[in-house]
Amino acid sequence: MITRVPAVNVSESENNYHVELAAPGLKKEDFKLNLERNQLSISVEISSAQQDNQKNYSKREYSYSSFVRSFTLPDSADLGQVEASYTDGILRIDIAKREEAKAVRRQIETK
């Protein structure tokens, strides 16, 4: 059996780090997010009792019964400000940057 792990996009904006995990067909209650030191772990474990046993499948390939994805967050991440949401099959996690890590931008006047 091939283990399938959802694809992840990781990006950065001026004030936040962003993690997007594609996991359609789940509910927000299926996700377990843990933050230990600077390690973010995203896991899902669905027991066979939760799966659809009403249908008689001849082949079933798209089923995430369980997975774990872990990410090491940079020191500039503010671990006290992490928000997660699940919409349209995408789990979105936003991690704020510490104030001192935010990009300093200013216009420099040419004389």
From TrEMBL:
Residues 1-111 form the SHSP domain. Transmembrane segments: none annotated. Pfam families: HSP20. It comes from the Bacteria. Gene3D superfamilies: 2.60.40.790. Belongs to the small heat shock protein (HSP20) family. PANTHER family: HEAT-SHOCK PROTEIN 20 FAMILY MEMBER. This is HSP20 family protein.
